[in-house]
Amino acid sequence: MDNSTIGIAYQSNPPSVPDWLNKGDNAWQLVAATLVGCQSMPGLVVLYGSIVKKKWAVNSAFMALYAFASTLIVWVLVGYKMAFGDRLLPFWGKAGAALSQKYLIHRASLPATEHHYHNGTIETPMTEPFYPQATLVFFEFVFAAITIILLAGSVLGRMNIKAWMIFAPLWLLFSYTIGAFSLWGGGFLYHWGVIDYSGGYVIHLASGVSGFTAAYWVGPRLKSDRERFSPNNILLMLTGAGMLWLGWSGFNGGAPYAANITAAVAVLNTHVCAATSLLVWTLLDVIFFSKPSVIGAVQGMMTGLVCITPGAGLVHTWAAIVMGIFAGCIPWFTMMVLHKKSALLQKVDDTLAVFHTHAVAGLLGGVLTGLLAVPQLSSFDLPVLGEKGTFYGGGISQLFKQIVGALFVIGWNIFSTTAILWVIALFIPLRMPDEQLMIGDDAAHGEEAYALWGDGDKFDATRHETIVTNTGGDEDNMQRQLNVMGARGVTIQL
Q1: Could you tell me which residues come within 8 angstroms of residue 223 by beta carbon, excluding any fewer than 6 positions away?
Q2: What residue intervals traverse the membrane (predicted)?
């Protein structure tokens, strides 16, 4: 179309506004990416720093902050193309940098996503959004970052920060990129027809399983911390949770790579499912424990958001309510009932119950999507034509694909997380020593979240003769000494 026949705001103006650039899609994708980024920074940074015991506030927030920053650098150096570049293996892309102007200003594309019929002819063309590659690189980065940060929730309150600083980038390269390429970037599960609309498997099932595996190898918190780990600031925790909830508009709304009908449906379904799950979880708390729990409501919100993610743009809104009901009761059951009866679940110290809120809810969402995906909505977004849920004529095959896809993600994340931690453990202890665990942030970082001494000066333990000793290995004795000396500062009990 000639530029003279369209409004000036929509005219191309090469080279900064090429013919293929859709300004609306580009704007929405950047906004969606920023919303997802805000879920992590500051959303999960704030949530982690406030939901833990006050002596772990700084350490927990810093683990999230570090993961966000380190992921971005590794992502643009090699990670993005390993997840969304040319095919190297059926489950992995070719590594390469996403740094040059020549690459980043061209139209975005996912080269391995071109899908063919059995006779070799093209069924669906390669995914090519109407914005530059730089937009897509940033958008996919925030998903990678939040996955690692969610994983961190399983090992808060005892993992050696130096071991975490090594683990985060290695897990991105050898675990996340494989799941992302297999299901999103044009890998074998993508072409086979496993449905994962926006990360129920790639992000939530992976982070939940890897977090649980990491918690097993790192070891538990101190007995005193496991028995009492009250949040240091519930109101601030709600602030972080609110950022997480509203940020999910970008999480699921950005998945179609365009400001289209699918994005609108996905955003509505996301919030409907989250609200339903929160109410169901709260209702169960009232029925069985006689009072509603704010922390429980946040858990219910989370499971609803996670459960809808594999099919947010592919199901009816009434189906989102159904998924919300399941999301509010099944993870509640595994956390409140099954957890107490399982020796394995009792043994593994999953600090924030990431296994229940993400692995269980993500798997549940993937299975329900295999049942409830609507043919018309699926045709708008999925690469394999004719994909639909079992209840809409998809047969048992779609459900089978969903289960096999989940088993691959589970198996690979157990293996890769274990291997990475084994290698790190050869050089650095995975768990802090008990002496540091007794103190917390001040021992790990030399900082405290809430410290008050004089006019803001820190208490200097070197000026006093009181020394913490653990000659008999008695944890309770160490705790009594710390209670007497004040653990290097007066903390404000919130």
Answers
A1: 475
A2: 27-49, 61-80, 136-156, 163-189, 201-219, 231-251, 257-281, 293-312, 318-339, 351-374, 403-428
